[in-house]
């Protein structure tokens, strides 16, 4: 009877300790296979196994026995040695996640690289287009300069021709004016003689 009472109190204390512990996420350590027991010790019968990396929920633990009570993903409750639990995911779980992260980062880098290559290509096209526009503007500018030079030469030639025509016209006017002046001078010299001779002729006839 006394022995049963001690077992009862021990079970009650264990239950209280288990209830006081908050449920926490744990992972089976990287051992290949872990046996789980029906109670906190190897003397309890084996009720199953857990594989490395399996996720379990920590319900409570018995520090004296070095065992923890856990619940697996299927909702089954059992006991497992504390040293076979880890707060970090096992390598079996972390490696695929790390590989996925590496794959995602590689894809992002490839996308960024492709984006930069596309931007670089677009910038090169824009620069090439700008160079073409600048060259065209330079050609147009040179053509306009050539046209301006030709126009200036034509203007200078026209100015020379105009000066020559003006000189010719001026010389013609001088010649016309000189001729008129000469005729007037001759008339001025001849008219008095003609008039005086007529007078003399009239006197002789009278």
From TrEMBL:
InterPro entries: SH3-like_bac-type, SH3_dom_pro. It is a single-pass membrane protein. One of its GO terms (cellular component) is membrane. The chain crosses the membrane at residues 173-195. Its EC number is 3.1.6.1. It is found in: Membrane. Residues 22-89 form the SH3b domain. GO terms for molecular function: arylsulfatase activity. Residues 134-161 form a coiled coil. Residues 1-22 form the signal peptide. Pfam families: SH3_3. The keyword DNA-binding does not apply. Keywords: Coiled coil, Hydrolase, Membrane, Signal, Transmembrane, Transmembrane helix. NCBIfam families: SH3_and_anchor (TIGR04211). This is Putative signal transduction protein (SH3 domain). It comes from Candidatus Sodalis pierantonii str. SOPE. The lineage of its organism: Bacteria, Pseudomonadati, Pseudomonadota, Gammaproteobacteria, Enterobacterales.
